[in-house]
# Entry
Amino acid sequence: MSQHVVVYEYGIIRRASEAAGGIDSTQNTEVFVSDQAFDLLKQWAFAPHADAVIHFFLQKGKECLRFKNYTGIVQTSDGTQFEILPKIAKNDTVFIARQSLLKMLRSVADLPFHRLSQAHLQRADQLLWEIFISAFIQEMEQIMQQGLERAYQTIETEQTFVRGKWLPHRQDALHPELLFTAHDEFNADILPNRLLKTCVLFLAKRSQYLPNQVRLRQLRFALEDVNTSTQVNADFAKLEKSDRRFNRYAQALKWAKVLLNQQSWATAGKDVNDSLLFPTERLFENYVARGAKRYLGDHQVSYQDDLHFLVDDHSGKRRFRLRPDLVIRKDQQTVVMDMKWKRIEPTLPNYGIEQTDLYQLYAYGRKYNANALFLIYPAHEDFRAPLPPFRFEEQLVLTVIPFDITTPLSSEIEKMESYLGMK
# Structure
């Protein structure tokens, strides 16, 4: 049985052999894992590109690892699965943190997570991996209800009689009694079905949740006449040429690609078999932007707007493109917003705001001739209302506002709209 470890962003990972005074499993800011799992993560931490995800350091002479601002799933080659959850509020439960991650994942348009339903969100007491498996199964069951697609396949074989077309140039001279023939069969053993079956078998070996195991077993039986894919990456590449008959397969195949290849925005290595990781700040940006576009219907909302540059060089060429997270326009008014996945601390002199973020907002305000500027940070127990405004100039004011990912998206956008001052 593989070990499952839940840890929050920036949580510290230590060796279980160094645990003193017992292990408090309720505090996910510090977790203890087997020496083997620790060593595999440590090796990965020194691999190219992994430093953006995980950091190795010493604390009081003890080796420690810390995941950075990435969330998702990492599995080491010994079978230990790490589930990294977002962390902003001090008292967030695992259920709330996992549900918040699922809500933000639903805003990722180019991956299948946007198909996660409200029912999936309510199952946040389950492991993240099992929720993903359940979503894939749901797509597969819809396909099965409509029936598998079939196509004519050319079957080449040796047999004692002619069926279809005899291929004399393929004849084995040592066995003249066997004829090499080719014939067409109308069956379900086609590329998309092979990839789906490959995913079903892959998940059947890795799911530890009984209801998922039962449903995967039923799918495996329904796909009994379909072979598996022997070259998954190449077969997924071929799918781009598939015809429209397979449009109804699209979401199931997207899930299969994610779950089989562990497609993500991070890079794994040989010590980490599977990784499904996402930079949390990017998820947060997508989530807020998706809500603004959906619920600010009478506003023009632009995500990652790129109309302006910071400077013109000596030849008049524009350089250093500006790309604010959100530009909201209505009539002759313009509001520029940036989003940061950081914890605001109202008791600190600068609230935990980076000075470079203020420089950036000031540049946006000047170039966009903005009526107002906003910095959006995740809400938590000590940050429920906007901070007192910052004034760059008489007509250029910055407001720092909270955005609560644990409440309905529509209500948070409505609250955000009330701060805009656009009439």
In short: Residues 22-27 have pLDDT under 50 and may be disordered.
